[in-house]
Known about the structure:
With 471 residues, the chain is α+β, with helices and mostly antiparallel strands. The chain contains 15 helices and 17 strands.
Amino acid sequence: xxKGVLAxxxxxxxxxxxxxxxDRLSRYTGDALGTFRAFQFAGxxxxxxxxxxxxxxxxxxxxxxxxxxxxxxxxxxxxGGTGVFGAAAPIENCIILSLDKMNxxxxxxxxxxxxTFQPGVVLADAASVLGSASMLLGHxxxxxxxxxxxxxxxxxxxxxxxxxxxxxxxxxxxIEAVLADGEIIRTRASAKPTNGLPLDRLxxxxxxxxxxxxxxxxxxxxxxxxxxxxxVEFPTFEAGFQAICGLYAEQVRPTMIDYGTESDSAxxxxxxxxxxxxxxxxxxxxxxxSQWNRALDICRRYYGVEGSQEEAVRFWRTRHAxxxxxxxxxxxxxxxxxxxxxxxxFRMDYLHVSLPISQVLEYxxxxxxxxxxxxxxxxxxxxxxxxxxxxxxxxxxxxxxxxTSPVLGQVVDEVLTLAQQMxxxxxxxxxxxxxxxxxxxAEHGSGLDVMRRIKRSIDPNDVLNPGKLLG
Length: 471
Ligand SMILES: Cc1cc2nc3c(=O)[nH]c(=O)nc-3n(C[C@H](O)[C@H](O)[C@H](O)COP(=O)(O)OP(=O)(O)OC[C@H]3O[C@@H](n4cnc5c(N)ncnc54)[C@H](O)[C@@H]3O)c2cc1C
């Protein structure tokens, strides 16, 4: 089958536009969900694509999708491949639709504060081209050096400056997309239209299950006149959390909130350990100064002590270090698939739940009990961007030959279900992918059926990224 598909795809995109060579496929055989983090789903990571196709225009994307519908071959859209839940992981014998070659900057306007990008533009490149036009990209994840505009929209990612600018999806003004049946749609990049369904939301946070983003106009921001970056130390996680709630209650508007226990602290498995708040403000000078003064005042009420300026600046400068490491250690190697699936004695997860503010501390106490009962070490508790966004990183040693870790897989399900039961959402940052799709029904109830009906009307043969977000 692969040979026939390859020849057909080459007729659409040209002879250099598709390949089934193993060395070309390795880059696309998986995303950042390695076996060390997949638990009971590790087996699904052995699926292999049959072909990768690199379209260069939305019309080619459309023809590929129409062809896939006819042949009933699954298609997985692929941006930077940095998603952590396997949303871009292949389905056996699928076509990988890589957006690598659709990486142009289509327009910038420092008058309108917009940038229009093709989906394969890496966020760091988008930020840099905007910077040269005196504008800021509001989405600044750890993975800025490696993730793409299309991938960030499709996962509705969250970054360092989300306290002020919101998620990537919040910044989308308009898109062009090819729906799963090959139909090309374009939404108007105008602020707040009031007529009809906002069809761009079909593409935001839906992990390439409804369509492929082929162009996006993003709201950009002026370069700030002044930026203050600071850090504040707290004696306990709870004290700092209360301070962050105080900032919100008094309508202080930080650009960045990055708060948490030290992951490399010797006391890291204790329930109440020192925690550090990294905070920034951006804007015009008088406003930034008064916002920071009020913020420091609030932090002091909760026993916060200002840390060194050097430490705050070091944090800001190194904020993309994990993305750079991933680029160097995985993406730039000869065999990214081999590196991702390397055997390891280390199993971990890093979860990002969204809870009502009133439930965060109680949820954390429940998790501390649950992890202690299972003998699992928690390395970090944190809050990102807003008090509702609560994250925790935990790990366990296992035998090297052991592919799965049933205990960790079960614990992940338990803590995410608990977040749902406490009125929250199981993920605010990374989407669902193949790893969390079994928990989507509990999250959306009958809403999931509505989503599936919409999906069927656009994708009658379920070819676009099946088995992921919508199960
Ligand atoms: C070291 C590291 C740090 C990270 N830090 C952050 C962080 O701070 N914040 C954060 O939010 N995430 C973070 N992530 C996760 C990841 O970078 C994000 O989920 C990112 O948005 C994915 O972008 P991508 O281009 O790699 O998409 P991919 O992984 O290629 O794809 C993600 C999903 O989007 C779909 N897709 C991709 N392109 C398109 C398109 N054009 N049209 C339709 N669907 C498409 C894919 O099918 C898949 O379902 C991190 C990951 C790593 C490895």
